[in-house]
Amino acid sequence: MKGKPLSQAQAKLKLALTQAEADTVSNSDLYVMLQELGLPSEVALRLHQLISYTQQIGDKIFSIGKIIVIKIIDFIKAHPNLFVGAALGAAVGSLVNAVPALGPILSPLATAIASAFGAVVGHRMDKKGKKEEVYEGIIGLTENAIEIAKVFFELLIEIFSTVYKSEFVV
Predict the structure, then answer these.
(1) What's the domain range around 100?
(2) Distance between CA atoms of 121 and 138, rounded to whole angstroms?
(3) How many domains does the chain have?
(4) Distance from C-alpha of 88 to C-alpha of 93, rounded to nearest angstrom
(5) Rg (Cα) of the chain, in Å, rounded?
């Protein structure tokens, strides 16, 4: 979502359109999509559990969980290497956790650092794949970190503005 905030009417329309999109995809198809993205089966299963979450807004019931999962799938498709890099970083954190004695202490730090590093490397790969300029050095890394934060928060804003603004105006 870019630009000015949605009006109440725009939020209602966006939620209705998003719900219509969600109605065209079955829960099992979404689960297959999650698995095809290469998500670990535990993550795909957790997201699949989210699909069944619904919310009554006004006199209608909306598939809020399904809408959120569709937005997550769209995000992963738009930024595949960013996602893979972050996932690999999380896997490194899990491996560190397996180290006796110090593993559980170092794991949160290792996960944060490795996930951030993996996300930046993946984001840079996504940009190169789109033939966008990628700057080197600390300035380039900082720019990439800012871009990652921006696209992630745009995803959250899109989800919240679609779902929750409509909840209070229907």
Answers:
(1) 80-134
(2) 13
(3) 2
(4) 9
(5) 18
